[in-house]
Amino acid sequence: MLPFPDQPPAHWIAVACAEHVANGLAWGIMQVCHGKSAPLRRVKPGDRVAYYSPTVTFNRNGPRGDACQAFTALGTVAEGSVYQVELAEDFHPFRRDVIWQAKGRAPIQPLLDRLSFTQNRRSWGYAFRFGLFPATGADLDLIAANLTAIA
């Protein structure tokens, strides 16, 4: 018998531009914080994750005026552990496999007063700066209800 009982699945909000989320949907993966491994090690198989996309495209030099400000995908972390891939000679990001269940655009503005991490917060965008943070099951249920199912 294990010294600690199994933990129930956790719920996470990950942050990436919509273009990168679309790649993750196509490849069945998640990647956060420019490919760092430490944040992904907090996520376990069976956990649910929703992606928030502040912009449509990624720009290292700051916003390009292509705001998205919507949740763009929701899925469940698959069995397996964090792994590293080589995308370029100088870029070797870490990833986790995800079974995606929903995609689309669920704008955050109508949900601000109902999400636990934005409710009653003047600076509601602060949490997103971390790239990956915990949420509640109710938060992910609300996001899921506002995304379209994957066909």
UniProtKB/TrEMBL annotation:
Family of the protein in this entry: Belongs to the UPF0310 family.
Its name, as the record gives it, is UPF0310 protein CHR90_02170
InterPro entries named among the record's database cross-references: EVE_domain, PUA-like_sf, UPF0310
Annotated EVE domain residues: 11-144
Look up and give the organism this protein is from: Elstera cyanobacteriorum
